[in-house]
Specification:
This protein is mainly α and about 190 residues long. Helix content is about 80%, strand content about 0%. The protein contains nine helices and no strands. Helix 3 runs antiparallel to helix 4. The protein is globular. The model has no long low-confidence stretch (mean pLDDT about 95).
C-alpha cells in the first residue's frame, strides 16, 4: 500500500512539474518527461486495482465485514476513468488544448479518495460531486480566459456524471449481477 501512496503522490508532483515546464516554455523537457508520466500512470492503474482487491479481501476475511465487495465499483471506476483520460491525453499529445484538459481531468479524478475521507462526503455520496466541482474549475477557467468552454469538458463532464452515478448505484444498491462479479474477483 505504501508504494501506491508514493506513486499517487509522485503523480501530483509530476503534474505540477509538467505544468511548470510548459509555463516556462521548456516543452522539449516536458515531452521527454511525458513518457515517464505515461509509465507512472499505467503503474498507478495496476496498483489502484490491486490495492482495492487486496483491501477488500482484508476487510472480508480479517475484519469479517459483510458486503464490502460492492465498494469495488468506486476504485475500479476511478482507475478506469483515470487510465482512459491519460490514454486519450497521450493520443492527443500533439493537440495541447485536448492534452492539457485530459491530464487535468485525470488528475482531478484521483482526488475522490481524499475527498471521501471526510465522513459526511462519503456517507452522503458527495465525493464525486466534489470531484466534479474541481473539474468545473477548469470549465470556469475556459469561460473566463477563452470566453467559451472547450469541447473536452462538454463531452467529458456529462459522461463522468453518468458513470459515477452508475458506480454509486452498484456500490449502494449492490445488484445481483454486481455481486456475482465482485465474488468472482474477491473469491
Amino acid at each position: 500500500m505504501w508504494i501506491q501512496r508514493r506513486a499517487f503522490s509522485t503523480w501530483i508532483v509530476f503534474f505540477i512539474a509538467q505544468s511548470a515546464l510548459v509555463r516556462s516554455r521548456k516543452v522539449s523537457v516536458h515531452r521527454a518527461l511525458g513518457w515517464f508520466g505515461a509509465a507512472l500512470a499505467a503503474l498507478m492503474v495496476v496498483l489502484g486495482i490491486a490495492v482495492a482487491v487486496v483491501m477488500t479481501r482484508f476487510d472480508t476475511v480479517v475484519l469479517q465485514q459483510k458486503g464490502v465487495e460492492a465498494f469495488l465499483s468506486i476504485p475500479f471506476l476511478d482507475m478506469l476513468l483515470f487510465g482512459s483520460c491519460i490514454a486519450m491525453a497521450i493520443y492527443w499529445r500533439t493537440k495541447p488544448e485536448f492534452h492539457r484538459r485530459l491530464v487535468f481531468i485525470a488528475s482531478c479524478l484521483l482526488m475522490d479518495a481524499a475527498i471521501g475521507r471526510f465522513e459526511f462526503m462519503f456517507n452522503h455520496n458527495l465525493f464525486y460531486a466534489a470531484l466534479d466541482c474541481l473539474i468545473l474549475l477548469g470549465v470556469v477557467r475556459d469561460w473566463v480566459v477563452d470566453k467559451r468552454v472547450h469541447k473536452v469538458y462538454l463531452y467529458a463532464l456529462p459522461s463522468l456524471i453518468v458513470v459515477q452515478s452508475l458506480a454509486i448505484y452498484d456500490w449502494r444498491i449492490n445488484p445481483k449481477w454486481w455481486q456475482a462479479i465482485t465474488q468472482a474477483i474477491v473469491g
